[in-house]
Amino acid sequence: MIFDQEYVLFEILDVFYLDQSFKKKTDTERNFDAISFRFKSETKISSGKQEIELCDNAICYFPSGLSYTRVSQKDELIVVHFKAFNYRSKNLECFIPDQPQKYADMFRQLLECWENKEISYKSDCAAIFNKIFAQFYRDNTDVCKNEKIADGVLYIQKNCLKRDFSVADAAKQSFMSETYFRKLFKEEYGISPKKHIIDTRIKHAEALLLTNYYTVGEIAEMCGYSDYKHFSTEFKRITGVSPSRFNYKYEKGEQ
């Protein structure tokens, strides 16, 4: 989800306040992304096989190119239209925060800044939106509940993109054998440390590919791979498409 991304590159296009009741509206393949915070809502969103009911304090991401129908009994919200440069999705993504007032205040601050249009307001709005994304990440990132491996998990999070990273080094941070660390990690997360690391690296590679700033070889190195061919093989195994075809897949709307 966009809500668990550590960083999102974006350009804000517009910020709106909407208050609508008994409204039915269909949007078809808009060429921008949108994130909304709903203060009060009784709304149903339908898109293909997806059908989501939005209530008070719901936060929802609408990716570029998505067609959907919105049916609202009431819908009071602030919505941000933007372009995301390193994240793409084909589905609606929603969550309800545990502390909605924190988000309500930030979205109101963003709207006020956008509407006042003072000098450097776009940069100021971008800073506020970055804070919102940072809060998304904090609220949607799993925290290790097993204190025995917490230091090792933190080590993985900080170092798994490095070429010289090893699970053995992570285990040392928790003062236990690699075998025992792997066992406790799988009990905590349901997957092995190796799979978690590979998934993290490929997810990071996807984000880098979408920026169009780097070659595939450069991305392989930035994601901890010393062997370009190994990276390409692993990327295709997980995503179903080669790194060089990854952007093409999304531009053509392939799943």
Secondary structure blueprint with pairings:
Layout: E1 10-27, E2 33-47, E3 50-54, E4 59-62, E5 68-84, E6 93-95, H1 100-116, H2 121-140, H3 150-159, H4 167-173, H5 178-189, H6 193-211, H7 216-222, H8 228-239, H9 246-251
Helix pairs in contact: 1-2, 3-4, 4-5, 6-8
The first-to-last residue Cα distance is 16 Å
Count of DSSP E strands? 6
The whole-number mean of residue pLDDT values reads 92
Radius of gyration: 20 Å
How do the helices and strands follow one another from N- to C-terminus? EEEEEEHHHHHHHHH
Oligomeric composition of the shown chains:
single chain
Low-confidence stretches: none
Helix amount:
40-55%
Count the helices. How many? 9
Structural classification: alpha+beta
* Most strands sheet: 6 strands, antiparallel
Report the portion of residues in β strands: 15-25%
Mass-distribution shape: globular
What does this entry look like structurally?
- It is built from 9 helices and 6 strands; from the N terminus they run E-E-E-E-E-E-H-H-H-H-H-H-H-H-H.
- The chain is α+β, with helices and mostly antiparallel strands.
- Strands 1, 2, 3, 4, 5 and 6 form a 6-stranded antiparallel sheet that branches.
- Helix 3 (150-159) crosses helix 4.
- It is globular and about 60 Å long.
